[in-house]
Every structure is written in structure tokens, then in C-alpha cells.
Amino acid sequence: MRLVIQEPSIAAPSLLAQTLSEIQQLSQSSGSFVQLTDHAYYLPLQSQPDTTKISQYCQSHALDYALVADEHTLQNIGLAVMDMDSTLINIECIDEIADMMGIKPMVAEITESAMRGEIQFEESLRRRVGLLKGLDASSLQRVIEERLQLNPGAKEWIAACKQHGIKTMLVSGGFDFFADYLKNLLGLDYAHSNSLEIIDGKLTGQVLGKVVDAQAKADFLIQARNQLGLNQSQVIAIGDGANDLTMMKEAAAGIAYHAKPVVQQQATYALNHSGLDGIINLFSTHS
């Protein structure tokens, strides 16, 4: 295995030799750190260290750390499945739609409760969408133009996937208006999400068809995995909310991206400070 240490790539490099030396001592390794980028290093390990002190040190220095299995490399991945809201992009789209009606706090509270796993996702989605009844559909385009941004490192991560022949799939409990936009923008291979019912240019407060919930996300992952002739060891899944946990369990590695505590606790790896390009560093073994 290897110990990966990294910091946000948008910051000035601060991983000094002293910092790495102190982490090396905590890991009780006789090896040396290998530089991946200006912001990421890894330390080859022969045995699993006690991560308690490493975790405390990294938290106090705003660093991400991960003990990564040797077989987890970009070369061994065939499919990357990603959540959309607050993972690939910086917003919860439904909250921003609600803001157009002046009810963002009410909707955001339900969103947060669902992401923490306190209420079932489908129930939360139908409750939130119901509050949007009567909104002009043009507001969806306004969200894209005025609010939606890719999370840091998103373009770099997708470019790395394409470079290594990794298929990319967006699975979202959000809406196809945004998922399809991102699929085209980034050149993703697949996108699955919910459809809002729109009649006479207005949202009806209803979702069309079956809701893309936690199980549906996992089902889309399995379907793509089988179609591509891959096995579980060749798939990774990235998300931030409780409704991403089921699909993570169907992957070789689940990555919690700036995620809720319940997701961090169950994920294989967690990124709390790095951007999405941090995933590249997790699965890289050379600069």
C-alpha cells in the first residue's frame, strides 16, 4: 500500500520537507516520499501503520491523507461513476432553483436532511419538487448561467479519465436539464438523472418516471459495468451524500468528496481539502 498526502492544488505549495518528514515518522516507515505534483506525495509502505496520529496531524494541517491499496491505480480503472450536485459541481441545483422562488432555506433544509441520511431520498425529492410548482422553466437555464460552476479539479479529473481510457458516468438524484448540460460540456460517456415535468412552460411540481434514488444509482453502475465487461475491481464511485453509499459499495473504491460524515465513515477514501484532481493523485504512482 501507499500513503498519499495532498493539499488543494489551488493553494501555494506548502508541503515542506519537514512536514513530510514528520508524517513519515508517524507512519514508522523507512521509505521516502515520492513527489506526484507540487501538492501531492506518496510514501510506499510495507505494512499498515497506526493511522490515528497521522489522521490527527493531517487534520491539524488541513491535509488529505489516504492509505491506498497498490492495485488501485488509474491503469486498473475502467469506469468512474460520479454524483453531480456538490460533487462534480459546486451547488445543489434544486436549492438554487428554489432560490428563484424565495424558498431556498426551506428546500435546502430538506436537502441536507436527505444527504445526512435522515429521510429517504425519494420522499425528500418529491417534497422539494412539489414546492417548485408554478415556477417558470426558464429559471433552470438561469441556474446554469448564474450559479452553476464545476468544482475545482473537475476538468483535470475528467481529462485524466479520458487519457487512461476510463469511461465516465454521471448519476444524479438531480435533474437531466443539468446532467445533460454537464455531459455535453465535459464529454462524459453516460448521464442518468431525474426529469422534471414541465407543462406550458411551468414546473408542475412532479417528477416524471422512476426516481433516481440510491438503489437506482447503484443499478446504473452495475448496468454500465456489465455492458463494458468490467468487474467490480475496475470501478470507482465518487459522491458526497448518503444516497451515494449504495453505489459506492458496488465499486472497488468509494471516494467521499467533501462529504457528509456518514459518507466519510463508510467510504474507502475521503477528500476534504483537495479538489477533484485529488482523485488523480490517489490513483497515481508516478508524476
Write structural notes for this entry.
- By secondary structure, the chain is α/β, with parallel strands linked by helices.
- The chain is built from 13 helices and eleven strands.
- The strands form two sheets. The chain has a seven-stranded mixed β-sheet, with helices on both faces. Strands 2-3-1-4 form a four-stranded antiparallel β-sheet.
- Helix 9 links the parallel strand 6 and strand 7.
- Helix 4 (93-99) runs antiparallel to helix 5 (104-115) and helix 5 packs antiparallel against helix 6.
- It is elongated, with a radius of gyration of 20 Å.
- The two termini are 17 Å apart.
- The model has no long low-confidence stretch (mean pLDDT 93).
Q: Uncertain runs with pLDDT below 50, 5 residues or more?
A: none
Kindly report the spatial arrangement of strands forming the biggest sheet.
8-7-6-5-9-10-11
What's the N-to-C terminus distance? Answer: 17 Å
Percent helix, as a range, is 25-40%
- Radius of gyration over all CA atoms, rounded: 20 Å
Helix-strand topology string? EHEEHEEHHHHHHEHEEHEHEHEH
For the secondary structure, the number of strands is: 11
Q: Whole-number average pLDDT?
A: 93
Please outline the helices and strands:
Blueprint: E1 2-6, H1 17-27, E2 34-37, E3 40-44, H2 51-60, E4 64-68, E5 79-82, H3 84-88, H4 93-99, H5 104-115, H6 121-130, H7 138-146, H8 154-163, E6 167-175, H9 176-186, E7 190-199, E8 202-208, H10 214-227, E9 235-239, H11 245-248, E10 253-257, H12 261-266, E11 269-271, H13 278-282
Parallel strand pairs: 5-6, 5-9, 6-7, 9-10, 10-11
Antiparallel strand pairs: 1-3, 1-4, 2-3, 7-8
